[in-house]
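Note to self: keep these together.
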Amino acid sequence: MEQLNTEADYTALYVNLEPAQAARGDMASGMRIILDALVASADEYLADRLLPEIAREIIVTHAAGSLLREGLRRWCRRLEKPLVLLLDEVDSLVGDTLISLLRQIRAGYPDRPGAFPQTVLLCGVRDVRDYRIHNGDKQVITGGSAFNIKSESLRLGNFSLGDVATLYAQHTEETGQVFETRVVEYVFEQTAGQPWLVNALGYQACFRTKENRDRAQRISLTIMAGAREKLIERRDTHLDQLVDKLREPRVHRIISELLSGAIEPGAMPPSEDDQLYVQDLGLIRTRPQIEIANPIYREIIPRALTWITQTRIPQETAWYMTEDGRLDFSKLLDGFQQFFRENSEIWIERFDYKEAGPQLLMQAFLQRIVNSGGRIDREYGLGRRRTDLLVQWLLDEAQGFYGSVQRVVIELKILHKSLEATIKEGLAQTADYMDRVGTEEGYLIVFDRTPEVSWEERVFVRQEQSGEHRIEVWGM
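Structure:
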């Protein structure tokens, strides 16, 4: 806006429409609030004295459903330059208020630029095509039919590695605080360049703790890894909004397949609109293949879906610790096996994402134990038919994850072939993951969801060999 206003061609105005959300389907109230917001923004950013006079006139002479169009029509006719109007938080509006807004913009379109804005930008987290507008008769009007003059959809892209380096270099230039080697690369790896996450990680690392506000303190990988964990735990507004989206049926259809790692037999694939919608939300990326957008989201999603379960699992870390401070994973998995046998049907039924119920319950159980001194890295995605977990347990708190760490691979698989075929495939995958992360401790868990199979048949534990690796296999 500021840049356009400093140039000679246009008058630009930003207006936040979120206050009108409270009006919901009350179109008359909603349009009054929108007109008030337009007047206030024109006063704040342009020092305009003309629009308030226009608003006072039309409020008594025009119906609520034409206030925006008429106000803009009169104002644009008296402006010296064409108007560019930026309407933010449009997708927070619902019902008749949203319908009226879109219809008035559509009706004024032929009058531009002399008697209507040259360009109207609708800003929000969703594309116009994804607006779901319910009229008074509970019928759904899609954004496409309500607003068919859209020129182009633009999405704020992710930062490149170079962009992140430039941004963090600006902090160093202004404050003198240095980011150590690999920190910028780590931030880019964890965020995939998502702008909010890049900035939030930097702010957490450099401003949220007293020690790091000392600009002589170099920002190390350990500090940035701690900032990542704090960000995940705190779940600021941006992250909370994304988690809230997981409850939407359209999002559920996409994310549930990624969490379970497989397409259910006979299940209808999600629609193109649903996948584009979830992509626009920033939850997934589709190239080179469909997957959760970045490692931080990949961590947050299962933790958010299982948080209530995690807090109610009656398990304590101390039960599974050895004298030398390590976790006894054979004992831990024995405890989970018994817990799963006794509680899985009840707990999984409570999950919104029942398709991935066993994997989510296992992760909730592990998170409950590991929270006090470690972390879990997760890999999952469509077509993988497995969930890879890397548990990292601190053995030296002073050095953190760059000191002595117990690293354990746990591979989760749903039985989809014969038991022996599933185990054979799982052993190769577990061994491969162990090689990649450099650990000698690995476990394979096979969940059998066949209803007619008894628990006596499902539950087992045995030792297997895959190449150089000894792997413990657990049946659930």
